[in-house]
Design a protein that fits this description.
Belongs to the MoxR family. With 318 residues, the protein is of the alpha/beta class. The protein is built from 14 helices and 11 strands. 48% of the residues lie in helices and 15% in strands. The longest helix is centred in the C-terminal third of the chain and has 17 residues, at 252-268.
């Protein structure tokens, strides 16, 4: 029942966010894996619309935080408020205490704010003063970055980047998709809305997460995933130019993320087994923010996707 409902949710999201079917697919994979998303794209490509649409069809609440250089950690986590009636302090929860959190233009906030968000993403909790507060069991962050404007931005620390399941790069829709977006906007202006499916309850979502582990990942494919990740750390074994391009390889979190997301992708395709194509399809999204390039590679115009593609060509399934 929950699996059928997931299919209807996917159909609804594709109707709400046109021309971004791969983005919707990876959004659902992150939801099934309990992971966080980093989305990089020019403005106006429906990032906010996608996460809001997702919040409408899941039994959970949504909050958006606009990250700015003057943002304080307490603006995200909340703070202790003195109450004169009781002559003590009470904790006022911040916007982070929601199920789905959109961290818009995340790289515009300074290090202290990123540190508070890192604890939430890593430990599912926030610490204010000397007390720690648990976040909801269903907690998912979708952070956005605008690649066109770099003035007034702060690069995200590597430890925080590693906490994101995927880094997704969106591009502009084609001519047909753009026309469909215009038609959808006209329909909404005339109050012709798409019927929402029955929301997925949190219990159903957690059942689906448990079901992921029933998707078979063959020992040879587990070895393939491990070989891919190790190749990012010891690329000289495969290609001398790769060794000059990669400064630091991916962490063991990448291994876990690739295995779990491959299971989720197979699950969305109504399969109970993972194929090598599943792993290769998701490798770029899992690794592009975890493989750090050398200055030499950046100077030569090499991108993380180019490095990952070269690794996929060199590392074979056992």
């Amino acid at each position: 029942m929950a699996r059928q409902q997931l299919t209807s949710l996917r159909h609804y999201l594709n109707q709400q966010v046109l021309g971004q079917s791969e983005f919707i697919e990876q959004l659902l994979i992150a939801l099934l894996c309990g992971g966080h998303l980093l989305v990089e794209s020019p403005p106006g490509l429906a990032k906010t619309r996608a996460i809001k649409a997702l919040s409408h069809i899941i039994d959970g609440n949504f909050q958006r935080i606009q990250f700015t250089p003057d943002l304080l950690p307490s603006d995200v986590t909340g703070t202790d408020i003195f109450r004169m009636q009781t002559n003590d302090f009470a904790f006022q929860r911040g916007p982070i205490f929601h199920n789905l959190l959109l961290a818009d233009e995340i790289n515009r906030a300074p290090a202290k704010v990123q540190s508070a968000l890192l604890e939430a993403m890593a430990e599912n909790q926030v610490t204010v003063g000397q007390r720690t507060y648990k976040l909801p069991r269903l907690f998912m962050v979708m952070a956005t970055q605008n690649p066109l404007e770099q003035e007034g931005t702060y690069p995200l620390p590597e430890a925080q980047l590693d906490r994101f399941l995927f880094k997704i790069e969106l591009d502009y829709p084609d001519r047909e998709q753009e026309l469909a977006i215009l038609e959808l906007n006209d329909a909404e202006a005339q109050h012709r809305t798409i019927t929402k499916p029955t929301p997925l309850t949190q219990d159903q979502l957690f059942q689906l997460r448990d079901a992921l582990m029933q998707v078979h990942l063959a020992p040879a494919l587990k070895q393939y995933i491990v070989d891919l990740i190790i190749a990012t750390r010891h690329s000289e074994r495969y290609d001398s130019s790769l060794a000059n391009w990669i400064e630091y390889g991916a962490s063991p979190r990448a291994t876990i993320a690739l295995a779990r997301s491959a299971r989720a992708y197979a699950f969305l395709q109504d399969r109970d087994f993972v194929t090598p194509d599943d792993i290769q399809k998701l490798a770029h999204s899992v690794l592009r923010h975890r493989v750090l390039l050398s200055y030499q590679a950046i100077a030569q115009g090499v991108t993380p996707d180019m490095v990952i593609q070269r690794l996929l060509e060199h590392v074979s399934v056992a």
